[in-house]
Amino acid sequence: MVGGNNTFGKTICSICYEDLKPLVEDLQSISICGHVFHELCLQQWFEYCTNGKKKNCPVCKQTCSEVNVGRLYFQSVGDTNDPSTLSQKPRDCEENPEELRREVKRLEGKVSGLSLALESQQKEFNDVSEEVVDFFIICLVAQTIREKERKLI
Asked: Within a domain: residue 50?
């Protein structure tokens, strides 16, 4: 939705429910259905879906995958160095301590979520690494047995 002053208003990421700011944030769209999200939010969504779940659009639940995702690029007719075209959030936070507290709490929540995702990925990595070591040992044993059998023949 475009407002009269060429700024996006009331467009939100359906994953984190925060405003989409196309000129200052990386946004991605699922090509199958066209829904738009923050890039990081969509990456986290797909990581969450890898836990045995079918990957789908968070909004319409249409089956999709990372190959159906594309980054959106926006051009601005205004000066991108003009502070009035950039996000107002930092200025709002400086002027309103309560807004700053909310922003800190939101960011702490994101950090917590990312930490959990990282922990899960590390566990999965460790499990796969152990499997690789186990298969390597099995291969070495099998190779040793084959070499001994060849020497006996």
From this structure: yes
